[in-house]
User: Which sequence fits this backbone?
């Protein structure tokens, strides 16, 4: 995904076999995969959130899809550094646009319940418990985001879909359609001049597992309820740098993407926005208000560098 435009709109690697002279375990039956294609439409994404804004996909974008039924706690593993995963399958966008098909292969019996995920940096495990899925990911990469004028860069938004056959029906396996929800909110900042090389969003408030953080080195997201949390507060990310694609920002509006609950409200206190200029001087402002944020919404800071004070 090249960006979200703001307008009036990953087979498991073979494991070594250790054969006992006394007993040999039979290999499990292979999973039969069949070709599939799912449509992800802009209308559903619009209804999912971002205040009615549109999402434009790029050819080659990848989403993860997997089964929910019979998944044991911790049995779904997403590989890292090129290592394939287990019980997760990739579908790839066939073209670019707001309504595109994602194609790939899924298990033949994956026809009723499952999940789909996009944009979870460092995703490495998915937990199944009490009729819901919780993706767990290492979100360290979001300590730095690339600023895109009037949008956000690829992969910084977390999106999810979940169908359990009862209370959630985001994936229609019969019509092959996926309706994503957003797990991120956006905070808007402005740039007036041409000498800003970095914008930093930070919080000095003490992190808890559910508040006062801008990301985490290990996080969970409940795809049934839309709730999110840190696994441990020691993994809280409390500062994000927004950097330009070139040497400096072009004047305009830019957005920080931060994880947020969907269907409830999170909170981040003592937020500070800092602008670093080409001469390394810093201008900043700290808010006296707490950001009460919900996934799918844009929050305007009403801040640019001219409204900040020298540090």
Assistant:
């Amino acid at each position: 995904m090249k960006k979200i435009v703001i307008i009036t709109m990953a087979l498991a690697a073979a494991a070594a076999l250790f054969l006992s002279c006394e007993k040999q375990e039979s290999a499990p039956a292979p999973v039969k995969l069949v070709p599939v294609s799912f449509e992800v439409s802009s209308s559903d994404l619009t209804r999912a959130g971002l205040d009615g804004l549109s999402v434009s996909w790029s050819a080659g974008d990848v989403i993860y899809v997997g089964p929910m039924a019979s998944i044991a706690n911790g049995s779904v593993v997403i590989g890292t550094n090129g290592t394939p995963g287990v019980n997760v399958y990739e579908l790839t966008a066939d073209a670019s646009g707001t309504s595109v098909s994602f194609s790939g292969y899924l298990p033949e019996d994956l026809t009723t319940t499952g999940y789909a995920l996009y944009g979870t940096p460092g995703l490495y495990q998915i937990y199944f418990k009490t009729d819901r899925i919780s993706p767990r990911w290492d979100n360290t990469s979001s300590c730095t985001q690339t600023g895109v004028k009037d949008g956000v860069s690829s992969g910084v938004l977390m999106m999810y879909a979940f169908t359990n056959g009862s209370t959630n029906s985001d994936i229609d396996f019969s019509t092959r359609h996926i309706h994503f929800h957003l797990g991120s909110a956006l905070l808007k900042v402005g740039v007036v001049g041409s000498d800003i090389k970095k914008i930093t969003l930070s919080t000095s408030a003490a992190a808890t597992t559910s508040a006062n953080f801008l990301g985490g080195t290990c996080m969970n997201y409940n795809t049934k309820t839309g709730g999110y949390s840190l696994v441990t507060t020691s993994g809280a990310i409390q500062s994000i740098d927004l950097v330009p694609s070139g040497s400096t920002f072009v004047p305009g509006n830019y957005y920080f993407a931060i994880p947020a609950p969907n269907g409830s409200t999170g909170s981040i206190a003592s937020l500070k926005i800092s602008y670093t200029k080409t001469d390394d001087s810093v201008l900043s402002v700290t808010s006296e208000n707490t950001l009460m944020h919900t996934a799918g919404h844009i929050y305007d800071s009403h801040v640019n560098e001219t409204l900040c004070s020298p540090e």
